[in-house]
Amino acid sequence: MILTQFLPFIHRFGASFTARLIVLLTLLTFASLTFFTRQSWSPYDATHPKRIFVLHMENTSTVPSEFHLHVASIDGNPFLDLVKSATDGLIPLGQVPEPTVANDLSVDWDIM
Predict the structure, then answer these.
(1) How far apart are CA 51 and CA 79, in angstroms?
(2) What's the predicted TM-score (pTM) here?
(3) What element of type H or E holds 23?
(4) What pLDDT is stored for residue 3 in this prediction?
(5) Which backbone phi and psi does 11 adopt, to 5 degrees?
(6) What is the residue extent of each domain of the chain?
């Protein structure tokens, strides 16, 4: 960022220096990209806390009143067991939480 501010003054050093500097900066950019995008490196390990969103909606205008508990994972890991254990006292016996697919037409998450 700071280097781009000095770009107008580089013409003083000549065309060959400018060409070598551009090649060097391109190689440095490529090296940093390959370092941070390699397969063996990940910012999250197995013990990293998983990020989830929980949204509780209750409709009291219907008889009987109904509620929805939406849980979404950012990290893409399966957490249906966590949802089942968290909703044990909330759902009637014999029912299982049903997974729904969130897409552009789903309005449940619009309030986020």
Answers:
(1) 11
(2) 0.41
(3) helix 15-36
(4) 67
(5) -60, -20
(6) 2-36, 45-112
